[in-house]
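Recap slide: Competence protein, sequence and predicted structure.
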Amino acid sequence: MGFEEVKENAEDLKNEAKRLIDANLRYYKLWGFKILMKSTTMMLKLFLLAVMLMIVTIFFSIAAALGIGYWLDNFAYGFLIVGVIYLVLAIVVYYVQDKIVEGPMLSRFSRIFLKKY
């Protein structure tokens, strides 16, 4: 009779362990889905914002080039000056890109992924 109880307890322990493992597996799948969705929506928002800012930048650049061109009585010089401004800006961004991108992105994703800890 004692052996039957031990056998039933071992069977119950096995069933409880299986339920615990299944529950943990479902939890981590849900947690992964949550992180994936937050990351995806954040990337989509950033992409849409970048597209809108690019359109605005294009229109402002054309307006600035035309304005400078009217001022200098030569549209080619206006577009050339705006192009040089963007070239200088690109060089500056190239040299400080790690400080601009790496730090904020690392802190943002750290808040999302390590929020639980």
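The chain has a mean pLDDT of 87.
Residues 16 and 22 are 10 Å apart (CA to CA).
(End of recap.)
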